[in-house]
Amino acid sequence: MDVEEFRKYGKEVIDYICQYGTNIEERDVAPTLDPGYLKKLLPADAPQSPEPFKDVLEDFEQKIMPGVVHWNHPKFFAYFPSGNSFPSVLGDMLSSAIGSIGFSWASCPAAAELETIVMNWYAKALGLPKAFVSDAPGSTGGGALQGSASECVLVSLIAARARAISELKGQTSVHDSVFLPSLIAYASREAHSSVEKATKMALVKLRIIDADEHGRMRVDLLRQAIQNDVNAGLTPFFVVATVGTTGGCAFDDITEIGKVCRQVSSIWLHVDGAYAGNSFILPEMRVFSAGLEYADSFNTNPNKLLLTNFDASALWVRDVMNLKSALNVNPLYLRHEHLTGVDYRHYGIPLSRRFRALKLWFVFRTYGIRGLQEYIRNHMALAKKFEMLVRKDERFEVRNDVHLGLVCFRMRTGDEPNHMLLAQINHSGKMHMTPAKFNGRYVIRFCVTYEHATEKDILEAWTQIKCFAEEILRDHQLESSSVPTTPEGSERTSSEPVAPVAGKPPIKKRLTRTKSLRFSFTRSISREQYQSQSEHLMDGCTPILVVDPKTLQENFQKAADDNDRNNSNGNVKLKDISDVDTDEASN
């Protein structure tokens, strides 16, 4: 492709992007295709000869787009927002065109220096402690853009591990690996699974701390766990607090957690704010950032709630020397004479780094702080609107505290009807949502994600949700015991049938059991597998595990057969069946 062809097709691609964004509502939010659909449409081998680019674009629309989930659709309410905006896309285009590999200041001075400047802008906009701002008087801290929050957690954990081992090692010549068995990290049960993955990669233990009824880490249990581990000869070295958990957008109490961590000098406190950390750009949300002065590191993703497209995750540390001492590898061919320039290869896992700061710079300059604040406040207001609609309907309940853009709701029935509800919603293709386990119950996560979302989008979504629920609730009783406290001023309505949105009725398709599991994001497993998975953290995209009723029936039949045999020997007790087992089976 020569420059003139690039100019021609580049304009066509820009026009396509504009049309896609303008007419995205005409598309289904998510496909209902089966795995392997694309293999049937594309050849088994790459072409030997060049093909016209026009044909490539046609195949993109006809073969690729039917399998795309549209994360920037007005009716996409799943996961968390996938930050995107035209200024960000344009910044990424220029970054790709420049093609610099910014591993050091010498490799691209503009990339290194803009990243430093933008990260300081960002820290100040969020109201972070001055210790994280590299140009603040007396600061030894600073920030860097990573690829994801998972990278941020891993980098922080590696730095914490290196610091702890250095303290344990002292002046001895013992190899670092000798100290690994004594290191232990801590995270809430509501923390992201990236914490668990990081501890596996770092070969250290992880202790999971239970959360309270609001989804916040129980500080009393953290304190006790740390004390028990110290008494057992272990070295607590890493604690993760979360602001905006994946399951219910809960905010851990950073101040109280920080006070506990300060009592043990070897502990590094990391605060994961992948989604909700961006909300600290609003002064009214900084009540949840109280305590960040205790943190050694903090991360948040502009590619979630700051209109910057993936990949871009911001990590700040209190002392950048902790990163450099843990991650510094400086072969001769990478050295240069500009000693005052920042080499960001020492701030993360990869050597090669994209010019990520460019798109974030475009976003800050194009929207301004006020524009970004308005965008987040709109999400908050719409989430509150949806919460109010749910609470007014006696058939539904809200299970989380709604502070930002996420509402976790469910029908006041058992879990299985809620599986059915989510499956119907997602199988329709007209909306897309995901589930979570919150306080032990299956909930449907409704997250406002679209940049230009309006109240109309929320009202239409709620009307369709109720239409799907009508049919399911005909065959299921409401649970009076789980009726939530109604906020003052909210009046519940009766459950009279509600007509679907004019012109867009929900498509109620009969689902097989396999499709019902798939579209409700659940996975049916044996009780033994379920119990073995109970100590793992969730990530917001893994299917919710449920005990297979067929397996339960088989286990019960086996126990009954054993009981019959025992009865013949004068033993009348059901073998292997306890009260706990029976309760679990009934759920």
TrEMBL record:
InterPro entries recorded: Aromatic_deC, PyrdxlP-dep_de-COase, PyrdxlP-dep_Trfase, PyrdxlP-dep_Trfase_major, PyrdxlP-dep_Trfase_small, Pyridoxal-P_BS
Annotated segments matching region Disordered: 478-509, 555-587
Region forming the signal peptide: none
Keyword vocabulary terms for this entry: Lyase, Pyridoxal phosphate
SUPFAM superfamilies (UniProt xref): PLP-dependent transferases
Compositionally biased region (Polar residues): 479-488
Biological process annotations from GO: amino acid metabolic process; behavioral response to ethanol; carboxylic acid metabolic process
Single Gene Ontology MF annotation: pyridoxal phosphate binding
Required cofactor names: pyridoxal 5'-phosphate
The organism's place on the tree of life at top rank: Eukaryota
GO CC, any one term: cytoplasm
Modified-residue entries (N6-(pyridoxal phosphate)lysine), positions: K304
The keyword Lyase is annotated on this UniProt entry: yes
Family: Belongs to the group II decarboxylase family.
Name of protein: Uncharacterized protein
Organism of origin: Drosophila erecta (Fruit fly)
Phylogenetic classification of the source organism: Eukaryota, Metazoa, Ecdysozoa, Arthropoda, Hexapoda
Gene behind this protein: Dere\GG10813
